[in-house]
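Sample entry (291 residues):
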Amino acid sequence: MREKLSFIISMIIFGAVGVFAKYISLSSSEIALWMSLIGSSFLLLIFLYNKGSFVWKTVLQNKWPLILSSLALSGNWIFLFQAYKETTIANAALSYYSAPILVILLSPVILKERFSFTKIIYVCIAIVGLFFIVQNQAPDQGEHYTGIYYGLVAACFYTLLTFTNKFIDGMKEPENTIIQLILAAVFLIPYIYGTNGFHLMQIDRTSLVLLIMLGILHAGIGFYLFFLGIRKLKGQSIAILSYIDPLTSLVISTTIIGEKMTSLQIFGALLLLGSSFLSERSKTNSPHFNK
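Predicted structure, serialized as tokens:
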């Protein structure tokens, strides 16, 4: 139950990132870099204050999953933030949340999980709910194909991030999160240097405050809870609960930005939340199909 609650809270935190990212006047890659550095520094200070210590033998034993996961985290942030900048929050959410479908489809192959017929049904209901939520939020003109494409690429990196963390063994939190955030920053620095360069000193005070908030809440606390949760949850449960993220994004966008929700969107939200709730209450004796 602790892991499930941690994952749900992380999804709520992640749901706010799109709204904030739109108002930070930095490139998506530089937002990801400073978030990594702020988040890792925040967790490291708490870790050292509590007199924690790294077990470097365990870290080295997990070096390849950690490296791959950190690369996936970097790519996920770069393309997701760019998707929010290129298109609406709704379009970005619709394309990005093809990731749970990928997790469902690949879990039997990679994690050797059995297909749960009932959970497949719940995923389909969640997808229908998500469609109802976002379909009235489409832009009046243009398709914003670039933003949708970035969202799809981010979904692939999210799927890779989810699976690679399943193969990290023996590492506790927050050590795992700290290592991955630091590695993500290491990978992002040369990328930014070779592309857009660094512009932190040129941003306004609002962007700076939002960046610090994202670093602590999203990169620090959010990913700590995310990594804590996915260790014990099955891939299919992760896929279902992940839909809490886009629902949170839409709720925040309506309350802060002022976007209106139609009755059809409210119905979609009920479908999405209901499917997530029912999926997690489904009995273990539900019919399964072996891989």
